[in-house]
Every structure is written in C-alpha cells, then in structure tokens.
C-alpha cells in the first residue's frame, strides 16, 4: 500500500457519510453539481486532474510520447536541464529533485523560479563551474513552463538565455529550448514569435488543469519522471498510483462509494474539515527527512486553492513541535510516517499519514504520484465541505497586476519614504505603515510594538518572513533562524519562511485573502549583485516585492517592509528580530494569548 491514514475525531463518521450520500466523488469525475461550481474559473471547469492518471493510461501512445520527448532531450547530450517556471509549473520539480527522485536523469536538473540576478549567477556557476560559459551553455537545455496565462518570469528567463547563446555563438540555439504552456499565454506568444518547440501540458492537448494540480497527470510531472527512468517504466509508475487512486471516468456508483469510505485522502479531508469546524485552521506538518522536500508542494496546493474570502487552511512545515503544545488551540498536527517512531506531538489533534515502504526509483516515483494525486483530492473534498471555490487565484492575480504596473512604469520604483525606523546609517530601513502600534524608534522597538499590539488585540495567528532574493544564499540562514525563534518561542505562533517571487505564485493567495492574523515581514535588498553575463535587471524583482506590499495593503493586511542595502546586511535585521524578542519577553508578553 502506498498510503494509509490514521485519524479519528468526533463527527468524522458523519462527514464521511455525507460525502458518500452526496456522491462527492461522482460529482468530481462527472464534472457536475457543487463540485463543478467550486472548480470553475472564468467559465472553465478545471477538473481534468481528477481522473488524469486513468485517462493517461488509456492513451498509451501519449505516455510513450513523453518517453520519446525525454529521449530527445538525452540525445542532445545535455548535462544540465534548466526548468523555468513559477508556482505549480516548477514546484513539482523542486519536490522530486529535493527527494532525490531525479538522480537517474543523467543530467543535473535546475529549477529556476527567481528573478534575482544572484540566483541566475548561481545557475551560471553550476552549468559552467570551470568558467567556460560557452561550453556550459552548449551542454544545457531550457524547459520553460507556464500553466497560467499571465506568468512573465519564464519569458524573461528565455530572453536572457537566448541572449547568452547568441553572445557565445552557440549553434542550434532554439533547439535548446522547449516550451510547455497554455494556448494564448504570454509564454505561448513568445514561443510562437521565436519559433521555439512547444508541447501541450496535458497529454490530450486540453487545458483544464490548474498549475498547482499539475502532478501527476501532466507533463510537469511526467517529463521529469521519464527523464529519471532512462530504461522506461513511466507507465508502471502511473499504474501503481492508479491502483490506489482509483478515480476514473468509468468508476461506477459502487466504486465511488467504496473510495469515499476508504480512501485515506478523502478521510484526511474529512478530518481536516472537523478540525476547521472546531476553529483549527492551522496545520503543522511533521515529516521524515526524506519527504521534507514535498512540504512546499503541499503548502502551495492547499493554500492557493483554499485561501479565499478570509477562510482556508494554512500549512506549516518545520516548526518547533516541542513548544507547540503551549500555543493557542488553533492548530492540528499531521504526521508523515514511514514506520519508525516520530517525535512526540504537541497536545493537539494528530493524524498520521503512513507512507508505504517504496523501493527503487520507480516505486518512489509511484509513491510521489500517489501523494500528489491524493493531496489534490483532499483539497477538492475539503473545499466542498467548507464551500470554498478551490479554482482560481484572485489575490495572486492582484499582485501580478501591481507588479506589472510598477515594472512598466517610467522613473524609479516607489521605495519606502516618510516615517520610518532606520538603523546602521540607513543600511536597514523598516516601514510599518498602516500597522497597529507602529510608532517611532529603532527597528527592534517598532517590531516589538507592532507584535505586542496585534497580540493584545487577538489578531496574531502566525508570523511570516518573506525574503525577496535568491533563497539559497547563505546570508539568510541566521535571519530565518531568528524569525523561527521569535515566532515559535516568543510569540508562540507558527512561522512561514518564504522567498519572493517563488512563493508569491502559491502561498501569497492565502496571505492576502485566506485566514486572518498574518504579521508579515517582507525583505527587499536594494543593491543585489548584478548578473555576471547577459542582460537581466533587478527591476522585475523589486517591482514584484513592492507589488505584493501594495496588494496586501489594498486587502487591509499591511505588511512590514524591511529594506536593506545588500545581503550582508541581513544580520542587521536578524539582530532587530532578536532584540524585539528580548523586549517582548522583558515586558511579560508570555502572559498574553
């Protein structure tokens, strides 16, 4: 068995009975009723992910075609594959790569979802470690993916790469690009103008799958999996997944009833629904090390789908569970288990998702496929139970609009001005405009005053730290550690550690429009390092960061904005967080709920 769930709660049998009585799974596979309404975006019912695995298996030629595409990539002799995209277009690749499931590809696979020139420089060092960029580029393939109509980042990545290839006179430049996108999208228009090879995201050529639900039935999952299985086996991966997932156009009423009664991910949705009925809309994840890279994928599929209209479920991996027992009773715990003993869980409702002991790369890919398909089902069923439209991402589109306007506007960007907290001669500037309790003083005092005020008002559910920069740079390690300590140990709240623009295409939906109570600290680096080759300006990154601030303020959830001069100044902000925590403890904040 690939997955099983241990979970119980008062009222759980009644919820499961409702799902069977209302044939919720039938509504999904038949694209009808309330499920279809909640899955509709701009008139399009986006439910092809529901039975996508079954339909892929029914079309053997299409699955074989994915293998042929992987063989073409290998035949180029590429040693590096850059996977450019945002949100669900790239998050699956992050998860598979982080879990070691792409090691058999015979090439290094580099997810690219940043507009920070520093991240591009890190990529160049990876593909040309000896400094010979021309040779490195000649051994590199770029796959650009967009499952949304308006994503511009992959276009900017392709333009940058195209310029590098021309500059270094790499032959067959366009043969090193592959585009996967929707008809009429920004990326599709670019590919058509440049004559770049293009393939559909769905095997059947349709486009009724949201980006966050792109695995395991679209090429976003299938192509990396095929690359990781050079001797074949992709069909076997899907067959193993489908043996437990079961949703298919041919599934009759009896089969749907049995699935609703026994599927672990249906039961998980029901259990989460019961917890949300009790006011627990924060979910702490406790994962074994080998599956931790899948946690951001869970965050994005849950929060982008359900963070709507002040409701939803927030997901928090990597928390200090030893201290969580003393937090307010607004969270539950989901433990992922492979059979070994786990850490003691806090005194909160706990469910355990047991993952089977998969062996071999194909077996582990099948486990991942089942994991992805199951969580998508959980989201749909939970949205159904809570009456949340799980299609669309209106808050993300609002951020994109603001970022686009700022990026295209004439003149300098509107960096913070006015009443600010300043430290180190201006190397750290903190803008707390619109936040309760914000007064004058140094950044640590302002941070402490704001936190104290929202705590006293009962308006703090979680702390967020979003760094608009290359997320893999070591300069941010101490800042992240201080944010976790401040949130988990001092404020007694969970913490999100995010990167922009990566997470603006996933969890930003819930931060802007999901459950209330976020205290978000956004970090912007005024002088990032310039790109070492080609032409890629930092204006896009800064416009995105400032665009999210505008969108959050527009939604009535103003964030703190910290502007530092360069990454080395991250320690100044880390010091401010540490000092803010000391001020709060000194003022007996531990007595507040």
Structural commentary:
The structure is a single chain. The protein is of the alpha/beta class and about 600 residues long. It has 23 helices and 18 strands. The strands form four sheets. The chain has a six-stranded mixed beta sheet, with helices on both faces. Strand 15, helix 20 and strand 16 form a beta-alpha-beta unit. Helix 1 packs antiparallel against helix 13. The protein starts with a strand and ends in a 7-residue tail after the last helix. The model has no long low-confidence stretch (mean pLDDT about 95).
Defining key terms:
593 residues; alpha/beta; six-stranded mixed sheet; five-stranded mixed sheet; 23 helices
Helix content: 40-55%
Question: What is the global morphology?
Answer: globular
Largest sheet: 6 strands, mixed
User: Which range does the strand content fall in?
Assistant: 5-15%
Secondary structural class: alpha/beta
User: Helix count?
Assistant: 23
In the predicted model, the low-confidence regions spanning at least 5 consecutive residues are none
- Number of E-type strands: 18
Termini distance? 42 Å
Let me know the average pLDDT: 93
**In what order do the strands lie side by side in the largest sheet?**
13-14-18-17-15-16
Radius of gyration: 24 Å
What layout of secondary structure does this protein have?
Elements: E1 3-6, H1 12-21, H2 24-29, H3 33-38, E2 40-41, E3 44-45, H4 52-58, H5 60-75, E4 80-84, H6 88-98, E5 108-112, H7 117-127, H8 133-138, E6 140-146, H9 153-167, E7 177-181, H10 186-194, E8 198-199, H11 219-228, H12 234-245, H13 253-262, H14 264-277, E9 282-286, H15 295-306, E10 314-317, H16 321-324, E11 331-337, E12 350-355, H17 360-386, H18 394-408, E13 421-423, E14 428-431, H19 443-456, E15 462-468, H20 477-491, E16 495-500, H21 508-513, E17 518-525, H22 539-554, E18 560-564, H23 570-586
Parallel strand pairs: 4-5, 4-6, 6-7, 7-8, 9-10, 9-11, 11-12, 15-16, 15-17, 17-18
Antiparallel strand pairs: 1-12, 2-3, 13-14, 14-18
């Amino acid at each position: 068995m690939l997955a099983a769930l241990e979970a119980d709660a008062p009222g759980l049998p009644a919820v499961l009975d409702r799902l069977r009585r209302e044939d919720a799974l039938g509504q999904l596979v038949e694209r009808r009723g309330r499920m279809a309404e909640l899955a509709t975006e701009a008139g399009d019912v986006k439910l092809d992910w529901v039975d996508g695995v079954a339909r892929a298996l029914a079309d053997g030629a299409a699955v074989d075609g994915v293998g042929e595409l992987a063989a073409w990539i290998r035949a180029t002799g590429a040693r590096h594959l850059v996977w450019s995209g945002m949100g669900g277009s790239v998050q699956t690749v992050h998860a598979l790569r982080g879990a070691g499931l792409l090691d058999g590809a015979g090439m290094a696979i580099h997810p690219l979802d940043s507009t920070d020139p520093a991240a591009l420089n890190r990529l160049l060092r990876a593909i040309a470690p000896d400094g010979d960029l021309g040779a490195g580029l000649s051994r590199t393939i770029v796959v650009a993916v967009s499952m949304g109509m308006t994503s511009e980042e992959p276009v900017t990545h392709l333009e940058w790469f195209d310029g590098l290839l021309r500059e270094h006179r790499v032959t067959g430049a366009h043969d090193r690009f592959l585009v996967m996108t929707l008809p009429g999208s920004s990326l599709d228009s670019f590919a058509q103008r440049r004559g770049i090879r293009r393939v559909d995201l769905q095997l059947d050529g349709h486009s009724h799958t949201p980006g966050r639900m792109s695995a395991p039935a679209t090429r976003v999952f299938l192509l990396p999996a095929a690359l990781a299985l050079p001797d074949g086996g992709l069909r076997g991966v899907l067959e193993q997944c489908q043996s437990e997932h079961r949703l298919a156009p041919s599934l009759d009423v009896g089969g749907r009833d049995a699935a609703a009664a026994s599927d672990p991910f249906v039961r998980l949705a029901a259990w989460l629904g019961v917890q949300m009925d009790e006011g627990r809309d924060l979910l702490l994840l406790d994962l074994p090390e080998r599956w931790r890279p899948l946690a951001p994928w869970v965050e994005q599929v849950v929060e982008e789908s359900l963070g709507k209209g002040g409701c939803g479920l927030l997901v928090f991996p990597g928390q200090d569970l030893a201290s969580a027992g003393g937090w307010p009773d607004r969270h539950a715990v989901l433990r992922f288990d492979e059979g070994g003993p786990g850490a003691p869980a806090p005194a909160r409702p706990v469910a355990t998702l047991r993952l089977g002991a998969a062996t071999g790369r194909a077996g582990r890919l099948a486990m991942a496929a089942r994991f992805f398909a199951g969580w998508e089902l959980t989201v749909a069923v939970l949205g159904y139970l809570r009456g949340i439209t799980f299609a669309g991402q209106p808050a993300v589109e609002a951020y994109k609009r603001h970022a686009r306007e700022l990026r295209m506007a004439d003149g300098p960007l509107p960096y913070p001005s006015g009443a600010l907290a300043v430290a180190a001669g201006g190397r750290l500037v903190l803008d707390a405009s619109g936040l309760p309790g914000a007064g004058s003083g140094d950044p640590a005092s302002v941070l402490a005053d704001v936190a104290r005020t929202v705590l006293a008002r009962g308006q703090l559910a979680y702390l967020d730290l979003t760094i608009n920069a290359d997320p893999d740079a070591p300069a941010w390690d101490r800042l992240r550690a201080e944010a976790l300590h401040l949130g988990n140990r001092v404020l007694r709240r969970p913490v999100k550690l995010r990167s922009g623009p990566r997470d603006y295409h996933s969890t930003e939906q819930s931060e802007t429009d999901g459950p209330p109570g976020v205290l978000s600290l956004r970090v912007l680096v005024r002088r990032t390092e310039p790109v070492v080759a080609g032409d890629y300006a930092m204006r896009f990154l800064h416009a995105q960061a400032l665009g999210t601030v505008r969108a959050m303020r527009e939604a009535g959830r103003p964030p703190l904005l910290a502007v530092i001069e360069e990454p080395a100044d991250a320690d100044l902000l880390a010091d401010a967080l540490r000092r803010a925590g000391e001020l709060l403890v000194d003022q007996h904040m531990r007595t507040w709920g």
